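Worked example
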Amino acid sequence: MNMLKSVIDKPLRSLAVAALALSGTGAALAPPLAAQAPSSQLDQAVAALRGISTMTADFIQTDRNGQRLAGQMTLKRPGKIRFQYQKGVPLLIVSDGKALTMVDYEVRQVQRWPISNSPLGVLLDPKRDVTRYGRLIPTGNPAVTSIEVRDRKHPEYGVITMIFVNDSGAPGGLELTSWVALDSQNKRTTMRLANQRYGVAVADNAFAYRDPRRSAPGR
């Protein structure tokens, strides 16, 4: 294992576990949000998520040790997302609308999980009822909205918290600026977004990937 791999492996896999593990499908997981905070604030956050058809953004991923990686996120709803990491990082996370896939080009390994088993379903599925498995977290700032998503029946799945900032130019008047994933071992991974662009043309082949098991190593 080379030095780069040893540096990036833990934060990348922490992100992958956080992105893939939390289910949040159907069952009533948290108390109704209307009993915790004004429904209008929640409704605005839901509208912001559902208002995203396509989106691109730069991201900075930070793990609990402060290690950082950069890249670009591309989103196309329903179901498609791609995390393209900076040059030299031999990993890719991508969803083709059916499954979320982590590709490790260094060890030529591919792992796949159903989208429905991922908290990223909050971003990818416009029909997902956020009110059934999330709750609003007070921020003390009326311009900032925070939504926590967790499966209380399965604490081992971890928690993901999405942060929105008021922005009249973003869908629903809220811009998704970051999310924080906390796994069952309290390992924290933060994704911060910048240069968000909405409604851009994104081809479906942007969510394809080269299978390293069928070709030579490399990207």
Notes: Helices lie at 3-21, 39-50, 121-124.
